[in-house]
């Protein structure tokens, strides 16, 4: 019951996506996920519930059941997309497009 359902679904998806990736590729994906999560309203809601109001009763935007639906999986997968304009990802020069291929780099 504790924690954001989107975060749980993202953790599960990331765990399964990274099995065959290099550490550089994993860090690249985690950077993408972190940017998307920080922009997600659930992040603000979690901070409110735990640190500001301290009611420990966050109202998450999605349930875990929503996250595992077809629509929910599409929503989760969007978190892996590069959130930066082409050529501006902070790890792009370090990694290069050829390391990840077109699946994770736009």
UniProtKB/TrEMBL annotation:
Pfam families (alphabetical): ECH_2 (PF16113)
InterPro entries registered for this protein in UniProt: ClpP/crotonase-like_dom_sf, ECH_dom, HIBYL-CoA-H
Annotated Gene Ontology cellular component terms: cytosol
Listed Gene3D superfamilies: 2-enoyl-CoA Hydratase, Chain A, domain 1 (3.90.226.10)
EC number(s) given by UniProt: 3.1.2.4
Keyword annotations from UniProtKB, A to Z: Hydrolase, Isomerase
Ranges for domain Enoyl-CoA hydratase/isomerase: 2-69
First and last residue of the signal peptide: none
Molecular function via GO: 3-hydroxyisobutyryl-CoA hydrolase activity; isomerase activity
Catalytic activity: 3-hydroxy-2-methylpropanoyl-CoA + H2O = 3-hydroxy-2-methylpropanoate + CoA + H(+)
UniProt keyword annotation of Isomerase present: yes
UniProt key word Hydrolase: yes
GO terms of biological process kind: L-valine catabolic process
Record-given protein name: 3-hydroxyisobutyryl-CoA hydrolase
Organism (species): marine sediment metagenome
Source species taxonomy: unclassified sequences, metagenomes, ecological metagenomes
